[in-house]
Design goal:
Layout: E1 10-12, E2 15-17, E3 24-26, H1 34-46, H2 51-58, H3 65-73, H4 82-85, H5 96-128, H6 132-148
Antiparallel strand pairs: 1-2, 2-3
Length: about 150
């Protein structure tokens, strides 16, 4: 990421490199341009990433730097603890893209759960001769016949 005036500095993964000195030093809050801060805030508020992911992706060293930017420049209310605002239930103001991402994650979780349960049934059948699949298939067949006739 280059700053609008490259003669001042270049941002390189958590360090500040100045062309005049050719040396690296740690960045401070003042080294980030307003445009860069707003870009990070927009990405987090859009739901593309969490603020911790943004820190890692953009090479921001401070633990709370992005959170401070969100509180100062964000459109959402970031004054409460992040853990309190993150809920398990889908929010009413979820964008279609966020809904799709959430549903894809839930689908992946259910596929893994299905695989696990199928493995458990296979193990029970093999080790204990329970025949769970045969009983389940017979019940489904009988229920289907009742619906038809």
């Amino acid at each position: 990421m280059t700053v609008s005036r490259p003669e001042i500095s270049l941002h390189l993964g958590g360090l500040l490199w100045t062309p005049q000195s050719g040396s690296k030093k740690k960045r401070t809050q003042r080294d980030y341009t307003m445009g860069f801060k707003l870009q990070v805030v927009a990405a987090v508020e859009k739901g593309d990433m969490t603020y911790k992911q943004a820190q890692k992706i953009y090479g921001i060293q401070g633990r709370s730097t992005v959170l401070i930017w969100l509180r100062k420049h964000g459109k959402k209310d970031w004054t409460q603890s992040v853990r309190l605002t993150m809920s398990r239930t889908p929010k009413a103001k979820e964008t279609p893209a966020q809904t799709i991402k959430r549903l894809e994650r839930e689908l992946d979780d259910e596929r893994l759960r299905n695989l696990l349960l199928n493995e458990v049934v296979d193990i029970l059948d093999a080790e204990h001769g329970m025949g769970l699949r045969k009983k389940l298939i017979a019940k489904e067949r009988d229920a289907f016949k009742e619906k038809k006739g």
